[in-house]
Amino acid sequence: MRTTVTINDKLYKALKQRALDSDETVSTVIENAIKYQVLEDLEDLEDAKKRAKEASYSFDALVGELKAEGLL
User: Fold this and answer.
1) Rounded to whole angstroms, how far apart are CA atoms 55 and 60?
2) Cα gap 55→21, rounded to integer Å
3) How far is it, in rounded angstroms, from Cα 41 to Cα 17?
4) Buried b (16+ CB within 10 A) or exposed e, 43-67
5) In which element (H, E) is residue 60 found?
6) CA 61, CA 63: separation in Å to the nearest integer?
7) Per residue in 20-48, pLDDT tens?
8) How many other CB atoms are found less than 10 A from the CB of residue 7?
9) What value does the mean pLDDT take over residues 5-11?
10) Using one digit for the tens of pLDDT, what is the confidence trace for 44-63?
11) What is the distance between the alpha carbons of residues 23 and 3, in angstroms, rounded to a whole number?
12) How far apart are CA 27 and CA 18, in angstroms?
């Protein structure tokens, strides 16, 4: 699929250099970056599903415990 993306000039320059350094096309570098981000998101969702039934722990309770232990 072909699409148009607007990228900051400095970022595009760095992207182009990365493509040259790795002997890949700019399109390949962008596609790989998106693929790795999506895979990371999927891993995060899997972890969240595994932990969904864990008891919740409030931030305030954690801060209270850390203060009581002299860690904060």
Assistant:
1) 15
2) 48
3) 27
4) eeeeeeeeeeeeeeeeeeeeeeeee
5) helix 59-68
6) 5
7) 999 999 999 999 999 999 999 999 998 98
8) 13
9) 95
10) 998 989 888 888 889 999 99
11) 22
12) 11
Scored b (16 or more CB within 10 A) or e, 11-34 reads eeeebeeebeeeeeeeeebbeeee
At 11, is the pLDDT very low, low, confident or very high (cuts 50, 70, 90)? very high
Give the span between the Cα atoms of 66 and 47, in whole angstroms. 26
Q: Which residue has the tokens 């096309």?
A: 25
Residue type, position 1, single letter: M
Question: CB of 24 within 8 A of CB of 15?
Answer: no
Q: Which pTM does this prediction carry?
A: 0.62
